[in-house]
Amino acid sequence: MTFRLLPKDIRFFELFVADGENLHAAATRLHEMVSTYQNVDEHVVEIQRLEKAGDEIDREINRRLEDAFITPFDREDIHELTVRLDDVVDGIQAVAETLVIYDIAKPTEEARELTRILAAQSVELLAALRKLDGLKDMDTHLVMVHDLEHEADGLSRAAIGRLFRDGTAPIDVIKWRDLYRELENAIDAAEDAAEAIERMFHKAT
After folding, report:
1. Looking at the domain assignment, is residue 115 inside a domain?
2. 3-state DSSP call for residue 69?
3. How high is the pLDDT of residue 68?
4. C-beta atoms surrounding 54 within 10 Å
5. Per the structure, how many domains does the chain have?
6. Buried (b) or exposed (e) across 142-172, using 16+ Cβ within 10 A?
7. Which of 20, 115, 134, 149 is the right S-S partner for 31, CB 3.0 to 4.6 Å?
8. CATH number of the domain enclosing 188
9. Domain for residue 133, yes or no?
């Protein structure tokens, strides 16, 4: 008969999933906001609420890191994953708020596609986080996050190029270039989160 003298705290896995669910909710909300572009202020308020909820989850993870005698992964890796997931939600909030600050009347088709990509990344990140406990069948989800980031790179470059080719008003060029960069930052942050999960996986297997 075997037993653990120092059992791992499974609460960490629950918190990872909660963080992923919160991120997914924020990314989905942003995509809905940009796709419909109705009740914009309500969407922004909800995204801000989700960002605060994510901060609370992160604080709980950090509290457990301080209290736990043994953790399921290296403490530095858990902290890194928490930071990366938070970066994605912060990026989502930045996009939503910038749309309002810049008084954007109508999102571009490229912006809609970029928020779709970000929402799709959130689906894959959540799926990977749900499998982190068993450390099985995660590769497909993580590869998809990377593939989506590459798709976004090309789309973003094309979108910025079109701003200059189509004779867009200079002020609108500035606004949309900033917004595309904010979207790129959030999508890149999702890839960074996937890489943090990959590092945890490879160290544990």
Report:
1. yes
2. coil
3. 75
4. 25
5. 1
6. bebbbebbebbeebbeebbeebeeeebeeee
7. 115
8. 1.20.58.220
9. yes
